[in-house]
Give the backbone structure.
Amino acid sequence: MSLVSMYDKTHRFPWLAPSNFFDLLKLILGFIDATRATQFSSELVSKHATMDNLPQDLVNEILKRIADVNDIANFSETSRAFREASYFALSIRIQVRNSDHKRTRNLLDSFSPNSGLNRQDLKDNMGKFLLRRRCIEQLHIEVDPMLQSKEVPDNKRSRTDFWMSDPCFVSGWSRHLGATLQHLCMVDYGKSLKTVDLRNMYIDTSGCETMSSLVSMTLHCVAVPGGALDDMNTYMPKLQTMVLYGVVGVERGHLTFSEMKFLSLGLSNPAEAVFINLPKLEKLQLKMKCPRELEIVAPRLKPYSFNLEVPEQSKVHIRY
């Protein structure tokens, strides 16, 4: 049973009584410290609790356990207290389902300027929802596996009306969230994703699925785990262009992309070891603190630009 169906239009729980209020708390929160739950019970029963006068601590406890965008939207409709609190949700998860895709496609395919229909689709509503939030720290947007498994016809791949990583869609809310956003995860139609440009965030590269269509990646001012370069090498085998600028956290890595032609490597911390063996590399830029061991093998390299701080203990080998 959803919380929305638990109370009547007066925002009161009609079956609320001291004997079962503790059960209500457990149902809402899933788990809670017994002392705090008892305190909430006594206080709310004595005040003839309504949804609009729940203690802020309780409202916060509930919202801590909600991340799904539909749940947050539903809870925000239950009372003014929840609506105001929902603007300060720290973590949000959005899953795009096959039914969402069908609704959006039908809406857009049937839309015409003279039809009188509202052209708001899933992405419009999603953007408006995110723009109302004030302090999101974690955002997860994912196309569910069933929808990912569907083949996108060639004649529709150029349409951007439903791609979650569409730059126009992302730029519409990313600046608004930039001041507080710490972790962003986006899982789009991986089979067709070709370009990624991510900035000002932490990126966990471990456990990614193979992105065999990705040809260009830019990371600007991001933090990554120590093995990020190896993860990229494994999960993004067809990369042709890679630009890393102000990247923090890399400890070591082997770059052996068979198709890479342009590499710009800007690491903000000195890694232990970086090995670059790129048979088709034509242009190389290094602007970083030199790793303790750096080896570059690039037989087709033409122009290159190095801006390296090289400590005495570092070893650098270049062959081209």
About this structure: The longest strand covers residues 195-202. The chain has two domains: 90-191, 194-320.
